[in-house]
Fold this sequence. Notes:
12 helices; 306 residues; mainly alpha; ABC transporter involved in vitamin B12 uptake, BtuC; two-stranded antiparallel sheet; 71% helix
Amino acid sequence: MLEILLDATVRAGTPILFATLGAIINERAGIINLGIEGLMLIGALSGFAATFASGSLLLGVLAAFVAAFIAGSIHALITVQLRGNQIVSGLALTMFGIGITALFGRGVVGQTIDGFERHAVPLLAQLPLVGKAFFNQDWLIYFSFLLVALIWFFFYRTRWGLELRTIGENPAAADACGIPVNRYRFLAVACGSGFVGIGGAYLSLASTPMWIENMTAGRGWIAVALVIFASWSSFRALFGAYLFGGITAMQLRFQAMGTTVSAHILQMLPYIFTIVVLVISTIRLQKGASQQPGNLGLPYDREDRK
C-alpha cells in the first residue's frame, strides 16, 4: 500500500517539479512569470501533437520544450526588452496558453498514443519501499532527478550561474561588471519556460498519454506557489513537488476507496494546501528567512542607475 502510494506521489509530483524548476530559473534572474499554467498547456499540446504525428516520444519532448521556449520568449521580450509589467504579461501568457491550446487541440481530443514506459534501474529498483517509486520509472522522471542536480550545480558551481544570481540580486552591479543583464535575463526566461513545457508534456506523454483540454488543472499555479515554498532551491523544489504529489495521490486513492467524504472536497485538497504554503512562506519572507532574489519583479534600465 505505502509503496503504491509513494510511486503515485512521484508520478503526480513530476509535472509540478518541472514547472517549479523552470520558474526558479526565471525568478533567479529577477523575472516573475505567472504564465506557468499557460506554458504547461502549450507544452502538453505541442508534445502530444508532435508525438501523435511522428510516433517519436523524444520529438514530442523536444517540441514541447521549443514551443514553451518560444512562448516564454514573448514574455521575455515584454518584460526584459520592453520593461513591461511582469504580472500582467504573465497572466496574459496564461490566458493565451489556455486559449490557443483549446483552439488547436480540438483535432486531437480523445486521440491516444503509446506513452513513456517504465525502465528499472538494475539493483536499485529492488530496494524495499523506495525501489519501485524512484528507480522503476520512465525516462522523464529520471531526467527530472538529473535536472534538479544540474540546476543546483549551474547556480552554485559555475560562473554563468553566479552571474545570473547576481543579476537577480543586483542587476546594476552586474552591469557594472560587464555582464549583459538583458541577454542573461532573456535566455533565463526562455529556457526556464522550456522546462515548464516539459512538465506539461509529462502529462500528455507519460501520466495520461492523450490530450485533454485544460489537462494541467491548476498545476501551474501550484508551481508558482511552490517556488516561494522552496526558497528558490532546486532540491527543496523536489521535496515540495513530491509533497504536493503525495496530497494529490492520496486524494485519488481516497476516491478509489469509495470514501464518504465528498469528491469535491478531496479535489480541493491540493489547492487548500497551496494556500497554507503561501501563508507559511509569506511569514518566513517577512521574518527574513527566505532567499528571494533582491531585484525580483523589478525591471532594469541601465539609464536609471544611481
